[in-house]
Design brief:
There is one protein chain. The chain is of the alpha+beta class. The chain has four domains: about 1-90, no CATH class; about 95-245, Phosphorylase Kinase, domain 1 (2-Layer Sandwich), CATH 3.30.200; about 255-440, no CATH class; about 445-535, no CATH class. It has 21 helices and eleven strands. It has helices at about 1-15, 30-35, 50-60, 65-75, 80-85, 100-110, 160-180, 190-200, 205-220, 255-260, 265-280, 320-330, 335-345, 355-365, 380-390, 400-420, 425-440, 440-460, 465-475, 480-510, 510-535; strands at about 120, 130, 135-140, 145-155, 225, 240-245, 250, 285, 295, 305, 315. Helix 3 packs antiparallel against helix 4. It is globular. It starts with a helix and ends with a helix. The structure holds adenosine-5'-triphosphate. Adenosine-5'-triphosphate binds near residues 132, 228 and 243. Pfam families: ABC1.
Amino acid sequence: MHFTRAYKIVKTFLNFGLDELIPSHLFPWYGRLMRACFFWLGNKHKDKNAGQRLRLALESLGPVWVKFGQMLSTRRDLLPPDIAKELSLLQDNVAPFDGEKAQQLIEQALQLDDIHQLFEEFDNKPLASASIAQVHTAKLKHHDALHQVVIKVIRPDIENAIYADLKLMAQLAKLVSQFLPDGKRLRPVEVINEYRKTLLDELDLQREGANAIQLKRNFENSESLYIPYVYSDYSRKNVLVMERIYGIPVSDIAALEEQNTNLELLAERGVEVFFTQVFRDSFFHADMHPGNIFVSREHPENPMYIGIDCGIVGTLNKEDKRYLAENFIAFFNRDYRKVAELHVDSGWVPADTNVEEFEFAIRTVCEPIFQKPLAEISFGQVLVNLFNTARRFNMEVQPQLVLLQKTLLYVEGLGRQLYPQLDLWKTAKPFLEDWVKQQIGPKAVFSQLKENLPFWGEKLPEMPDLLYKALKQNTNKSANVTIQQSNRGIVWAIFAMTFTLTGTVFFVTEFIMPSIALFSTATICAWRALRHSSNHQV
Ligand SMILES: Nc1ncnc2c1ncn2[C@@H]1O[C@H](COP(=O)(O)OP(=O)(O)OP(=O)(O)O)[C@@H](O)[C@H]1O
């Protein structure tokens, strides 16, 4: 199986002339020798351009490769634009699998003798069928009521096929990175590893269910986004039962216009939902292609999105978020020095990077973007340009940022399709500026203290003990005046710390007057500590 599949892949690549995509000066002699060994396989599609040949080759290799091509199409940082555009046309035309088989899989997963024990009107005919899973409609008997649901079922036997293809892909990536002189720059091994992770995550519907539950909780009372309810009691690794939704696909602009949807508000809400997910929740839906987004039929004047398929989500840590927000703000202020410094501070590029050179490189690629009116600038493209430049300065690939950049491109595309005059910057700027403000300044310091309160609350009872030990040590060593002096300094410092902590506890629990008294005492202790330490140094 392994060998025949490997041969099929080589045959497809050569029949679509993909070897011709490698520039001759980059094709080493051993590569050409290997190519010559398959002399009977030649390019049968000479009439088509490179992008088309690559797309057709991937389509003929099946779903794992199609999904890989779709992922690559969003990596504008790695591929030339014409090839990326062609890959974005990839379609996974897979036939649905037998509905009886789906029913059998559901019965097995939920340990039912008969599907009708739990579901009424299970429809054998799939509602939708994709490369990894198929969706059926049913009515769930739940708490003495009937609930309209959809059941997503992973295709039978897909797992083994995916593992086998991923293994071959990984071997191919290794070959490319080892034997093609320019292979490493494309980071094929990392790209395949990232793809592997995404694809395997998609095979686990319990994970998708958990993501949907989290996202639903994050947008509990939101007017902008609704996530269908997941029946976790009836969900397994290969079966997911969730509330059926009846929204309008977001790409169906005619239907949205027909019900007088406020498209401007809808487009703005897309941007708002995205930035809320990224900056408020650090948890974003990262598969926002139009097939996964619907619009509620209710209240078209106050339109709400409905999101499905939460199989791929992204998360960002606090530092990433802060640098990202500041990067956008600095970029739109055309402060390229700041952009360069942020990349160094965040550790995205090595600490010894020449900031001036980096600033200059960023200016060169970013300044032309401002030729356009601000409203037309693409945030996603800004990130692509920035990351491309940073990569020349040895920026490591940050998978979470790549996911974010990809999602941002989708969100923008979607927003502009709904409302071409959408001014992304106008919608996003106040959001980003508020967020950055919240992260710095006194409010942020206190919220940080509040966050660390449980830790300090735990340590506070130990303070008197520490103090006692320090004092005792001080008495034992009284022979040495210098040490005694320095110990006194330590004792005052401990006092200062204890009063500060207690003051903070009072402050955040809103006992303002006692907290002021404690902070004042802490200041006096700190001053005494400083005096002792300076005497000691003298
Ligand atoms: N809760 C739901 N209510 C109504 N229809 C749904 C629901 N969930 C999924 N569908 C339908 O099933 C289709 C496929 O669902 P989903 O996107 O979750 O599957 P998938 O296998 O992950 O597909 P892909 O990854 O290719 O988008 C959707 O486009 C939608 O038409």
